[in-house]
């Protein structure tokens, strides 16, 4: 019985460590994404994404209706690089919830967004990723945006 336990530990142990390493890799990828975002590096931002990435946002409009908007990643990259250097912006991530299932992963990050040190809005980012040739790429990014309930 003792031998069976040791063999099981040796065979299954690395799978657990591998999962943690993959979670660390995914968290680093998202952190690097936001580092590039904050310095307006559209070339680097593009490198994190699959060429067919999809982007959407869920928000409440002025009448209280929930709206879904879709944007092209190329438009996102252009808008980030066109922010004036006099405008300070920061998206602060509060946590990481990372789930991996083989070649796909999901990373959720609650956030608060600041413009010139003033809270603009808050929400949750949800990144869907796929492993392509041994490298994680963002294939879908959806976020929520709210001006109420921000802490």
Automatic annotation (TrEMBL):
A molecular-function term among this protein's GO annotations: methyltransferase activity
Protein name: 3-methyl-2-oxobutanoate hydroxymethyltransferase
Species name: Salegentibacter salinarum
Pfam families linked: Lumazine_bd_2
InterPro entries in the cross-refs: FrzH/put_lumazine-bd, NTF2-like_dom_sf
GO biological process: methylation
Native organism taxonomy: Bacteria, Pseudomonadati, Bacteroidota, Flavobacteriia, Flavobacteriales
Keywords, ordered alphabetically: Methyltransferase, Transferase
């Amino acid at each position: 019985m003792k031998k069976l336990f040791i063999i099981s530990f040796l065979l299954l142990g690395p799978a657990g460590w591998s999962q943690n390493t993959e979670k660390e890799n995914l968290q680093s990828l998202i952190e690097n994404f936001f580092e590039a975002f904050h310095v307006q590096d559209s070339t680097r931002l593009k490198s994190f994404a699959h060429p067919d990435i999809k982007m959407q946002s869920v928000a409440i409009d002025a009448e209280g209706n929930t709206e879904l908007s879709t944007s092209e990643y190329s438009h996102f990259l252009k808008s980030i690089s066109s922010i004036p250097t006099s405008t300070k912006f920061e998206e602060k991530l509060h946590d990481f919830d990372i789930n991996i299932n083989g070649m796909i992963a999901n990373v959720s990050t609650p956030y608060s967004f600041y413009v010139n040190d003033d809270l603009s809005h808050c929400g949750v980012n949800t990144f869907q990723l796929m492993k392509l040739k041994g490298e994680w790429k963002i294939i879908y990014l959806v976020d929520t945006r709210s001006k109420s309930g921000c802490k």
